[in-house]
Task: structure prediction
Amino acid sequence: MSEHLTKTGARNVFYGGSAFFFAIFVALTAHSHYYMRTTSTDESTLTDAVARGKHVWEQNACINCHTLLGEGAYFAPELGNVWTRMGGDEDVESTRETFKAWMAAQPSGIEGRRQMPQFHLTDQQLNDLSEFLRWASKIKTQNWPPNDAG
Result:
């Protein structure tokens, strides 16, 4: 028995290992897609208002400062749970009005604090954005963010 790895043996180890880890990668990818489609998000709650709210989110590049479920810039607070922090579904209209009032009060002008710009969103855009953030707050995130403050 040879104590050295031959070229044929090295080739077989390489191809065998590559095939094994590629199969593991495919299986984990399939599992992730299955999990996302069946567990984390309820597609039946996607409404036109949620889609329009996501469009407002993208048009105003909110992700350039905020994070949503951990994705985005870490300059401003996480918004995946902002709906819950503002009151949640206990009183939807009150929470929506709180959100709209907070957006209208920007920039706050507090000395030494980062300032959010005023985007001059219409009432419809604010309602749609609040619906998008409400929808995002219901995604099962496996306890992300780790604290309520975002």
Summary: The mean pLDDT is 91.
